[in-house]
Design brief:
The protein folds into four domains: 80 residues, no CATH class; 116 residues, GAF domain (Beta-Lactamase); 91 residues; 127 residues, 2-Layer Sandwich (Heat Shock Protein 90). Helices cover 57% and strands 15% of the residues. It has twelve helices and nine strands. It has a five-stranded mixed β-sheet, with helices on one face. The N terminus is likely disordered.
């Protein structure tokens, strides 16, 4: 017979159960001997046992058996060290243990340890409800390979493995977490340990509520911190973009419209000078200034269209996108109705689509693109789809240019919208901007 049968937690459990059974059998024998045999001797009946005394002994055993069984199981558990202390001691000191001198973040680990040691489990876990979803908060022994498989529905049996148990922790009818444990192979929880498991789950509701509130606040704090960092980066990018756009506009005005206007002013001064001496020459120069003024007007018109497309203001998003993509080297199908959206949304969608199409033309190697607008339930969504090679959004900043996605995010997030990606390597990409209208 192997040595493991005599030592270890499984052996301790077997010896504990055997001791309990022997103790209960001895108790029944003692009760029978004292009442039936001792009572019969006092009554002078040493022959066959008295039926009335036998019934009395049966009643006494029935009334006291459960209490004696509990005491025997507790005593045998202490004798064979199934846990560091009696399960009843663990349960009675639970509130003091989890609330006395421990920081809130330490409570789940403390509770997992109590649960594992009090029930003699192989491991125990404390799952916490944070932002309406269950997360594994602590396990014991610390660093052990506990189970992170999906939990059963609250109140249902845990069927993810043999000897696995789970109890839902509630307070005031609200679910705040789940206690989970794994029995040792071949060693089921005793009745006392099952009651301890149930008792701990019943007492832990208020504690898990406190821990859950703290975890929820921490998650929201981290979310707000991340959002603040994103806003700061977005603001810095917007400022840099505005500065660059201002410098570009200065260059365009200086190199284009300003030169035309300077030339026009110089020629008009020449006309003024020669008008008295040579009227015919002056008339000829004035005639030429009509072409110069038209060139200046066209240059200014091009500048204004670069800042805000004329078609967008006059005819709406669909007409502006069709005009913008009419000369694209990759065919672009614009599926946008004549519905008008708020000007800020139309402008954001226009520049978003322009950036997305430009990125697809440069990097996707697509044969065609589609731009589609959908509106429903107070939201408008503009999708740019291609049939190209696809890409990983998280790696997009490493591509040439590097600012395309950042610009798109800044445009849409500035009006409270969101951008989502659907990428399938080798089968194209869909990028969608959604805004409340």
């Amino acid at each position: 017979m192997s040595r493991g049968w005599f030592t270890g937690p499984i052996a301790d459990a077997r010896w504990s159960r055997l001791t309990t059974a022997v103790g209960l059998a001895a108790y029944v024998v003692v009760v029978y001997a004292v009442i039936v045999l001792g009572g019969g001797a006092l009554m002078g009946r040493t022959g066959s046992p008295s039926l009335s005394l036998s019934l009395l002994a049966t009643v006494v055993v029935a009334l006291t058996f459960e209490r004696v069984r509990r005491w025997t199981e507790s005593a045998s558990a202490r004798m064979f060290h199934r846990s560091g202390s009696s399960p009843y001691d663990v349960l009675s000191h639970f509130s003091e243990t989890v609330t006395g001198g421990y920081a809130t973040e330490e409570l789940p680990a403390r509770m997992a340890k109590l649960l594992a040691e009090g029930t003699n489990a192989e491991w125990a876990e404390v799952w916490l409800m944070v932002q309406d979803r269950l997360v594994l908060e602590a396990s014991w022994p610390a660093g052990s390979h506990a189970d992170e498989q999906p939990l059963p529905a609250p109140g249902a049996r845990d069927l993810t493995g043999a000897g696995r148990r789970a109890l839902t922790v509630r307070h005031g009818g609200q679910i705040y977490g789940i206690f989970r444990l794994q029995e040792h192979p071949g060693v089921a929880l005793s009745t006392v340990e099952e009651r301890l498991f149930t008792g701990l789950a019943a007492q832990a509701g208020l504690v898990l509520r406190l821990v859950g509130l703290r975890a929820d606040l921490a998650a929201r704090r981290d979310e707000l911190a991340l959002r603040a960092a994103e806003l700061q980066l977005s603001r810095a990018r917007l400022i840099a973009t505005q500065d660059e756009e201002r410098r570009r506009l200065e260059r365009d005005i200086h190199d284009g419209a300003q030169q035309h206007l300077v030339a026009l002013a110089v020629n008009l001064r020449v006309v003024e000078t020669v008008a008295a001496k040579d009227p015919e020459r002056a008339a000829s120069i004035v005639g030429l200034q009509a072409d110069a003024s038209r060139a200046a007007i066209e240059t200014l018109s091009e500048l204004s269209r670069g800042m805000y497309p004329r078609h967008l203001a006059d005819s709406g998003l669909g007409a502006a996108l069709r005009a913008a993509f009419s000369g694209s080297v990759v065919p672009v199908v614009v599926d946008v109705s004549d519905v008008r959206l708020p000007p800020t949304v139309e402008a954001a969608f226009y520049f978003f689509a322009s950036e997305a199409v430009q990125n697809a033309v440069k990097h996707a190697h697509a044969s065609h693109l589609t731009v589609q607008l959908l509106t429903s339930d107070g939201f408008a969504s503009l999708t740019v789809a291609d049939d190209g090679v696809g890409f990983a959004p998280e790696q997009a900043t490493a591509t040439e240019g590097g600012s395309g996605l950042a610009n798109m995010h800044d445009r849409i997030e500035a009006i409270g919208g969101v951008i989502s990606f659907e990428d399938s390597r080798g089968r194209g990409t869909r990028v969608t901007a959604t805004v409340a209208v």
